[in-house]
Each structure stands twice: as C-alpha cells, then as structure tokens.
Amino acid sequence: MAIPPTEIQKKGQKVLYDYQQRDIDKIFNRLKEFPKKYNLLYQLPTGGGKTVIFSEIVRRYIASTKKKVVVLTHRIELCGQTSKMLTEFHVKNKIINSAVKQLDDQDQYMCFVAMVETLNNRLNDDQLELNDIGMVIIDEAHYNSFRKLFKFFQNCFILGVTATPLSSNMKLPMKDNYNELIVGDTIDSLIKSGFLAKPVIYTYDVGLGSLKIGMNGDYTVKSSEELYTNMMMQDKLLIAYEERSKGKKTLIFNNGINTSIYVYDTFKKAGYPIRHLDNTNSRQEREDILTWFKNTDDAILTSVSILTTGFDEPTVETIILNRATKSLTLYFQMIGRGSRILPTKPQFSIIDLGNNTARFGLWNAEMDWQSIFRSPDFYYDSLVGDEEIERNFKYVLPDDIRKEFAISTDIEFDVEEEYAKTKRYSLRSLTVLEKSIDQHARMCVENSEDVFDARILSRLLDRDIEYRVRRYSYCISKSTKNYRDWLEEDYKRKLRSKINQLFIDV
C-alpha cells in the first residue's frame, strides 16, 4: 500500500504524487494556451489533495509570470487552512477578512486569500483595489456565490476546483461559467493506489414519502425533521449503529438541528459517548467538541452539515447518513469525511439511512463527470426517484420479531405473484390482501394461547402490513398516501376480526 497523500516533505520542499503532478501539468498547458480570459474547472475527489495541487500551481505561476494570485473560499475556516498550506509552499500570502478594510501593504504580497462575500463587499464599495492579478483560484467552485466576482477579474485566468462539477443551483449550470473541465483520478483509482480508504457500505431502507422538496431542489428541513425525529427512525439509527459501528469513531450527519439534538439524547440515554455540534456553537465550543472527538477512540459526533467542508479528521471510522439528500455534492462531501486513510485504517464504514446510495450509486463507483458537466439537466432527470427506489424495498421480519412467531414456518408472502394470479383467473384484486390477512392471522394464532395474546402479536406486524399494502398499491397503480393509509387501517381491522374468527372456530 502506498503512503497516504498527506504531503511528504523532503529537504523542506513538498513532494507531489504522480497523479497530482500530471494534473498540474495539464492545467499549465491550458495556461500557456490561454494566459487570460479563460475559465477552467478542475475536478478531484475529496482527499485527493486539491489544496496541495492549487498551492503548487500558485507557487509556479507566481515564479513564472511575476503576476499575483487571488484564492477564493466560501468559509472562514477554509481561508485559514488555505493560507497555511500556501505558506508551506513558501508562498507569502495575506488573508482578506472582515477586519481588512484597505490593502496599503499589498505590494508586500503576491497572493491573497479571501472569503467571497468579504471580497465582493470591498470591491463593490471601492474600498480596495487589487493590482496586477493574473490568476483567480476558486475553492469548492460548485457554490454559485463565486459568480458575482467574475466581473472584477475579466482579464484573468480563472481556475475553479471541486470534487463534484455540478452546480449547487441546477438553474445555473457550471458549463455557463467555465470553458472546460479537467477530470482528475477517480475515487476507485485513489483507493487502489492507497491514497483513500476503502468504503464498506450498509444500507437501511427508509420510506421517504413524507419528505417535501424545497426551492433549492433538496428535501426541506421541516419535513426531514418530522421523519427523522420520530421514535421509529431513532430506533433504526441506534440499531444500525449497534450492528455496524459500535465502539468505532462515528460521524452522524442530519438535516436539521432538532434531529441532531434528538440523536444526541437517544445515544446519551443508551450510554454512548456522544456530542452535538451545529452552527450555533461558539468557536470555543466548536474547538472543544472537535478536540474531544479527535482524542476519544469511540466518540460519536452528531451534527448538521457544518462539517461537510473544511473538516479533516482521519481517525473517523464510520459515516452515518441520517438524512436523505438530492444533492450529489453533499452526498460526496459527507462520505468524504471518512475517506482519509491511516496505516491502521485501510477502510471505513458508510451507514446510509436515506436511500442515498440507491439514488446516486456507490460512492466509489465510476462517474462520467464530463457528461454531468456538459448536460446537468440530463443527469438530474436520470436520477432514480424515491417511489421507484421504494418499489425495490423488501421487508424482512427482524430477528426479535421473528422469534415471536417461532412456531410458524410460513411467513413469506409474494404480493406480486398473488396479484398475477388474480389477473390470470379473473379474480378480484382485493383477493391478494384477503390471502395476506389469512396468513398473518394464522401466524398470530399459532403463536398465542388466547385471542388477547394473538391481538398483541398482530401489532408486531405493522411494518410487514405497511410493506404488503404498499406492494399491492403498486400493483393496482393506485399508490397515493391517503389510499394506502386507508388500506392499512382496513387491513388491521380485518386482521383482528380474522383472529377472533379463528379462535371461535377452534
């Protein structure tokens, strides 16, 4: 296995990996061909060393052209990290933050690192003027906030870098702002070369029918919180952790602060070491929590999307997606937090509780980024919808429930096969549910001493009933939520009646 790409130092100089050097050469070839007024986008997976690459580009560009460089980020933490990396590449730089009102000392620097909003405000208010800028580098270029600054650098070579060349706003595709995309090594090749940890993926089916899509194209926080704060989902999360990640350093991503607080309470009551972090925490609280997380072997950190960028903790062993997202970028960012490799960590776990793997594919699968860059609308249209994903769910009685029906040998029921029989023999479609009710009733009676025990047992079948009703509704092409809810209530009422009848017959 190769040594991980945490920058190797040799005689005070950074040593780049072959794939990093190869991509830098490609970028400089474009620079020679289009020294200004050219917008180039560069893609490389999270963990591949994008900051290392563009820091070397800055160093070489300044040395060869004597022109200055501006590096733009969208978060204050990234400003500090970027400035530090540039310094390690012997690039003297200055951070333009909210405290910087003027640049009287700009002649002392060849590189400036700035947050997009801060720089935009200064330039629009004519509070400062940047001289002799030849190149602008945009980190996390998929965010659209950077577009507002392009007008100030019209004669520059602009280099955007991202792990996912798909705009955060589907109405503003990246192809409209960049002339070309250069694609770096794939996640799979970086895993095989020993630069990224190998994922072990566990998925748990989750019904997302109650989720709503917001104006940004992703699931709303409100509808997500209603789903993920309910007791069933909290239990599913805890069970998934205990089955797949107990004792491992775990990072849990949620869509909403309330959900994260619920997760914190659930795990705390279960006796597990956990902390909660969101954007309302002070800087000191954040530092204390992250220090605790780093130094605690079996730590669990539950958060909202605050740690998707600018957070690097290689000791993370498990990523739990306790949310669903329609954002490919967010999907890659969340999982990427666990992909850093260590000599003692050749692989990491992904626990998906939002059908995200079914929606986007495996994290380490091959992606046609060029096609996505050129035709983002086609990509969005080709995504598998939630209803289609749920059509492929198969419910299996959990072991603890199966034990309650230990006497029964016949617990399987193929809804589609039974529905096909109704068509073949011209039977009523409701015959399917009637047969299912008969089977469930027998299961309850076989494993009970009296009608009261049987009725109690029947409540354990609620999820199996919901699954069978949903399969039936797909068959008859009538799958509105209200209709399914009515069918479930009618099913349970008839099941109780059938149980009573079977005990009377006995």
Structure explained in plain terms:
There is one protein chain. By secondary structure, the protein is α/β, with parallel strands linked by helices. 43% of the residues lie in helices and 14% in strands. It contains 20 helices and 15 strands. The strands form three sheets. Strands 5-6-4-7-8-3-9 form a seven-stranded parallel beta sheet. Strands 10-15-14-11-13-12 form a six-stranded parallel beta sheet, with helices on both faces. Strand 12, helix 9 and strand 13 form a beta-alpha-beta unit. The longest helix has 25 residues. The relative contact order is 0.09. The N terminus is likely disordered.
Helices and strands in order:
Elements: E1 8-10, E2 13-15, H1 18-33, E3 38-43, H2 50-65, E4 68-73, H3 76-88, E5 93-96, E6 111-115, H4 116-124, E7 133-139, E8 157-162, E9 180-183, H5 187-192, E10 198-203, H6 221-228, H7 231-244, E11 250-253, H8 257-269, E12 274-277, H9 283-295, E13 300-303, E14 318-321, H10 328-336, E15 347-352, H11 356-360, H12 369-374, H13 376-382, H14 386-391, H15 399-404, H16 415-424, H17 431-446, H18 451-458, H19 462-475, H20 481-505
Parallel strand pairs: 3-8, 3-9, 4-6, 4-7, 5-6, 7-8, 10-15, 11-13, 11-14, 12-13, 14-15
Antiparallel strand pairs: 1-2
Helix pairs in contact: 1-2, 7-8, 16-17, 17-18, 17-20, 18-20, 19-20
